[in-house]
Amino acid sequence: MANQKKIIEIKNVGVTYKEHKSLFKSEKYQALKDVSFDVYKGEILGVIGRNGAGKSTLLRLLTGIIKPNEGEVIHHTKSVALMALAAGFDSNLSGRQNTIINGMLIGYSKKEILLKIEKIKIFSELQDFYEKPVKNYSSGMRARLAFSITIYMSPDVLLIDEVLSVGDISFRQKAEQALEEKISSDITVILVSHSEALVSRLAERIVWIDGGKIRKQGLPSEIFPEYNINVRFSTFGLKVKSFYVHSDYIVIIEPLTIKKNKLMFNAIILNKNGKELNKITYLDCDKNINKITKVSPTPGLAQKYPKNNNANNARFCGFELTIGEAFQANCFVNDAIFFLHLT
């Protein structure tokens, strides 16, 4: 990225909201804390994080809808468009009227918009609803309108907030194809989505927002394994402080269960080079050495890696970690395979 032109710079940004607890009482809530990263011209940047992590606040910041309380956002472009379910539509106006207003906000003249408006109507598949007030639209119809407007108005920077996750499958496929064509035309895209498959396919780089802070940046293949592990454990109020997987292995932690003070889970562990694993030895948080030999079928993994003879039986069953009041678990598996540190 060193030789690419920066199109947006985010420097030590903080955003604070007031939460009204009652009529006379409010508390401050910091949605973003000391966030810094750059967006480069022509790149597709994925933004991931759990609900409430600060993703939508970040997009509103990048469009200029809100201003930071700390730090600064520097734009090297005048054309930034947010494609979201809300999309800033006036619910009392029709799809056609909202198209004109949104186009003008992006920077187009009314004459330029009218030259594109019929194509937008056709692409949106709204038919007669295009002439009706947006308040009568479903969330999927709003998403189709938002996508259609933005895909034809071609801003320099396109911000997408979960729009591709709604609507029928045929429109999603058409939208993803149109987006991929738009990406190839050197547009800059910032994509917020919970879909690992979509982000991994489209994004060149990922920014992971966790509790209003940047947890990690990097390639999708580097970020998603740790992100998915963190989502699994956070369901039980546990945070993955660090997670390491040896490059020769695939490790997938499956859904967790808790019985009394024991956290239990299964793990799919596969050596990419075809090395057979007959048992797994791990050190739990009580520094007990445990061995697991019970292995169960993994047909989905076998389909994905048909040339790996061990992919059909790669699920090791029966990991147990003790949970205490001051909980900290270090799980080393065969030293070289993976390391899991929970707090």
Overview of this structure, please?
- The chain is an alpha+beta fold and 343 residues long.
- Helix content is 27%, strand content 35%.
- The protein has helices spanning 55-63, 95-106, 110-124, 139-153, 169-183, 196-202, 220-234, 299-304, and strands at 6-20, 26-40, 44-48, 70-75, 80-84, 157-161, 188-192, 205-210, 213-218, 240-245, 249-253, 257-259, 262-271, 280-283, 289-292, 295-296, 315-322, 329-333, 338-342.
- The strands form 4 sheets. The chain has a 6-stranded mixed β-sheet with strand order 5-6-7-3-8-9, with helices on both faces. Strands 10-19-18-14-15 form a 5-stranded antiparallel β-sheet, covered by helices on one side.
- The mean pLDDT is 84.
Map the helices and strands.
Elements: E1 6-20, E2 26-40, E3 44-48, H1 55-63, E4 70-75, E5 80-84, H2 95-106, H3 110-124, H4 139-153, E6 157-161, H5 169-183, E7 188-192, H6 196-202, E8 205-210, E9 213-218, H7 220-234, E10 240-245, E11 249-253, E12 257-259, E13 262-271, E14 280-283, E15 289-292, E16 295-296, H8 299-304, E17 315-322, E18 329-333, E19 338-342
Helix pairs in contact: 2-3, 2-4, 3-4, 4-5
